[in-house]
Specification:
With about 100 residues, the protein is of the alpha+beta class. It has one domain: 2-Layer Sandwich (Alpha-Beta Plaits), CATH 3.30.70.
């Protein structure tokens, strides 16, 4: 199971904070060690637009992500900077060099 997450900031002033917050989120998730969870973050060439790809094997893992301290800290830090709530789209992997 995977989700594509689109983040849009209110303005470009929050760009550097968003990058730092995404790095902290990933570091926090690694430290929490939620088995089977992978979260990758990307910036685009538009200063207010970011993408995330959340991969998880089952609903229990997704719920563990939602309840993680790292995700709670991320939401608190950058939630007010979003132009709108993050938009999610379910995606299905077809092929990957990840293995």
């Amino acid at each position: 199971m995977s989700l594509l997450v689109r983040y849009t900031l209110k303005d470009a002033a929050g760009h550097d904070n968003q990058i730092a917050a995404m790095r902290d989120l990933v570091e926090g998730l690694i430290a929490e060690g939620i088995a089977g969870l992978n979260y990758s973050c990307f910036e685009t060439d538009v200063a207010t637009e970011f993408l995330g790809v959340l991969e998880y094997p089952d609903d229990a893992t997704f719920k563990a992500f939602q309840g993680s301290a790292a995700f709670a800290a991320y939401r608190e830090r950058v939630g007010p900077t979003f132009a709108n709530p993050p938009q999610t789209t379910p995606i299905t992997a077809i092929a990957s060099t990840r293995g």
